[in-house]
Each structure stands twice: as C-alpha cells, then as structure tokens.
Design brief:
The chain folds into two domains: about 130 residues, Four Helix Bundle (Hemerythrin (Met), subunit A), CATH 1.20.120.350; about 100 residues, Helix Hairpins (Orthogonal Bundle), CATH 1.10.287. Strands 1-2 form a two-stranded antiparallel sheet. Helix 7 crosses helix 8. By secondary structure, the chain is mainly α.
Length: about 290
C-alpha cells in the first residue's frame, strides 16, 4: 500500500493526535462505519426513515389525504423531523472536527432536511402561505440524504466531474446551433405561424433539436420545413453525445481504481482513494 506523509496545515480544527472519548468512538463507528454490522443496520434504518418521510410529505400535498389525515400527517412529520435532528446532532458529536462536517455537502444536506420544519413555525398566518409551501418543498430534498449510503455514488460523481468540461463544451455548441437555426427560421417564417421573435424561434429550435416536438408552433413554408427536417435529423445524433462522454468517463474512472467506502472519523467524508492513508478533505489519518 502506498503511504503518504502527514499533511501540514494551519487549520485550527486540525489535530491529528486528538482522540475521541470511548463512547464517541463507538458512536462514530456506528454512524460512519458502513462496513460494520451496527453501521449497516444504522444505514438501513435511516434509509427507510428517509423514504417514509418523503412519502409522508408527498401525501401531505394530496388534498384528499390532507383533509382526512392532516393531524396524523403532522404528527408523523414531526416524529421524522425530531429523528433526523437527533441524527444530525449525533453526527456532529461523533466527529473530531464538527465544523468540517457542518460545511460539507452531506452536512448541509442533513441541515436542509430538518431546517424547513422549524422555519415553518416562524411563518404563522395565511399571508405566509407561499413561504410555507416553499419550505414544505425543501423537505422533499431529504431524499438527497440517501446518496451518502450508495456505494457507487462516489464513482459516478467523480466521473461526472471529470466529464463536466467536455459536456459543457458540447452544450455550448448546441446553444450556438439553436441560436443560429432559431434566427434562420425567424427570418424564413412569418409571425402568423407563431415565430414572433428570435427567442421564441430559439425555443422552437430547442424543442425540435431535442426531438420533444410539442407542436405548439411549426414552420409553414417549404424552406422552414426543410430547416426543421435538418434539425430533427441532427437531433438524433446530438442527443447521444453527452451520454457517450459520461459513459466513457465512468468506465475509465471505475477501472482506474476503486474507492474506499469508509468515512473519515474527523469530518465524515467518504470516497477516498483505495490506497489513501489520509482524508483528502481534512487531512486526518484514515483507519486501516
């Protein structure tokens, strides 16, 4: 196994010699130790709770269900909120540097999953109904908490990150095409056909290039129909490009080396290189 030198840092939260108390170490093993029996059981229970909480939130948006079971849904929602609040607090307690976990992606997801329920209490009255609906919508994002328990999620995210520049170049080329074709069809077609402006014509070009074809506006002249045919044929070839780019990068990333599924005991981050000895996010030594 390749060894790495301990990193030097001026981070006030960094203390490689710091140890947790025995009960915090045990708690860390249960919450972040996905390879241990207790850790697996914790992940399963939490995953089921997340799915059930999202189902409750979705049912609460159904008027017929809400009218009949409003009180029950309210109580169940707060049970889940308190459960996730307890889990969030335990995660902060069980890591050596809570601030690093707090500002990490999964730390922010955990916070967003519980914060809306408490913020709703600050918006009483009918005048705040819009704000309440927005906060209710945010609670659906609890489903993002599940990404922390998907073993292959880190590989997929790494492949997406590596292919992002190629995909952005592709999207830029597509943007240029729809602007050019939209402008051309705006010149060719009449306002009566629905092409009242270049932006609306660009919208038509996007719908046509992606082979969606709403049919709300369509070219009427032979030249406009010829342009539409060219865009449709081009769309079949273009739409597969980003999938190919990402698939190739995903295979390259997966075969380049596996990642470790264990979480850093200091900040809770996962997805470290298979032969890494230190966390790439905070520099803390990883457990063997």
């Amino acid at each position: 196994m390749r060894t790495q030198e301990a990193p030097t840092t001026t981070d006030p939260y960094y203390n490689d010699g710091e140890t947790l108390s025995p009960w915090r170490e045990s708690l860390n093993t249960v919450i972040f130790g996905s390879e241990t029996p207790m850790g697996k059981a914790f992940d399963v229970v939490l995953s089921i709770s997340i799915v059930l909480s999202v189902i409750v939130i979705m049912l609460d948006s159904v008027e017929a269900v809400q009218n009949q079971h409003a009180q029950a849904l309210y109580i169940i929602e707060w049970i889940f909120t308190l459960l996730f609040t307890l889990e969030y607090g335990l995660r902060l307690i069980s890591v050596r540097r809570p601030w690093l976990y707090f500002k990490s992606f999964f730390g922010l997801v955990d916070l967003v999953s519980i914060l809306p329920s408490y913020l709703i209490l600050l918006f009483p009255g009918t005048q705040a109904m819009l704000a309440i609906r927005i906060l209710r919508l945010l609670r659906v994002f609890r489903i993002l908490k599940l990404s922390a328990y998907m073993d292959e999620a880190q590989v997929m995210m790494a492949a997406l990150h590596k292919s992002s520049r190629k995909i952005m170049v592709f999207l830029y080329a597509v943007l240029m095409l729809v602007i050019v074709f939209g402008s051309l069809v705006y010149v060719v077609e009449s306002r009566e056909a629905g092409f009242t402006s270049i932006p609306r014509s660009v919208y038509w070009a996007i719908v046509t290039l992606t082979t969606v074809g709403y049919g709300d506006i369509s070219p009427q002249t032979p030249l406009g129909q010829l342009l539409a045919s060219a865009i449709m044929i081009m769309g079949y070839g273009i739409i597969a490009v980003p999938t190919g780019i990402y698939s190739a990068e995903l295979i390259r990333t997966y075969t380049a080396g596996k990642v470790r599924n264990d979480a850093c005991p200091a900040c809770g981050q996962t997805g470290h290189d298979f032969d890494a000895d230190y966390c790439k996010h905070c520099g803390h030594a990883l457990e063997d």
